[in-house]
Amino acid sequence: MSRRRRAEKREITPDPRYNSPLVSQLINVTMLDGKKSVALKIVYGAFERVSEELQKGDPVDLMLGALENIRPKLEVKSRRVGGATYQVPLEISFERQTSLALRWLISAARARRGPMRENLAAEIIDAYNNTGTVVKKKDDTHKMAQANRAFAHLRW
Q1: What is the CA radius of gyration of the chain?
Q2: Which of 4, 44, 109, 139 is the least crowded, having the fewest Cβ atoms under 10 Å away?
Q3: Cross-strand bridge partners of residue 87
């Protein structure tokens, strides 16, 4: 980590179809080996599938609803004090909450069997319905933070 200055945040350009920076971020997380056009097809196909199955309108709004259910509010970070290492619970910034949620969503979709488009759609639907792997991961993260709240005074 550089000690000179804080890295400035880059502006994320919105995606071409939905004109949403969030969708663009999801596409970038989905992308492997710089193949953005493949990632675009996967994400847009998943969004079409989600809007067909849920029949509730705009897929970006459905994605936002799913993200609200999977965004972690707390996480634990290792902190070394003396000779011992403690798991210290910390609140997370909104940008990190979003990036963690998107990363967890994509990794859960990759862990499933079958085409990525179908897997991503299924994970988004599960997250929207507050079920599935990603919601469980968020709950586990929160439980870990709750279990270690005795070390919250070691925050830095």
Answers
A1: 18
A2: 4
A3: 78
Q: Nearest CA to 105 among 138, 73, 76, 80?
A: 138
Specify the pTM.
Answer: 0.90
DSSP labels for the chain? --SS-PPPPPPPPPPTTT--HHHHHHHHHH--TT-HHHHHHHHHHHHHHHHHHH-SS-HHHHHHHHHHHH--SEEEEEEEETTEEEEEEEE--HHHHHHHHHHHHHHHHHHSSS-HHHHHHHHHHHHHTT-SHHHHHHHHHHHHHHHTGGGGGG--
| Residues 145, 53: Cα–Cα separation, whole Å | 35
The single-letter code of the amino acid at 37 is S
List, for residues 9-36, the tens digit of each pLDDT value: 889 899 999 999 999 999 999 999 999 9
Euclidean distance between CA atoms 130 and 117, whole angstroms: 20
Cβ neighbours of residue 57 closer than 8 Å, sequence gap 6 or more: 51
Backbone angles phi, psi at 141, to 5 degrees: -65, -45
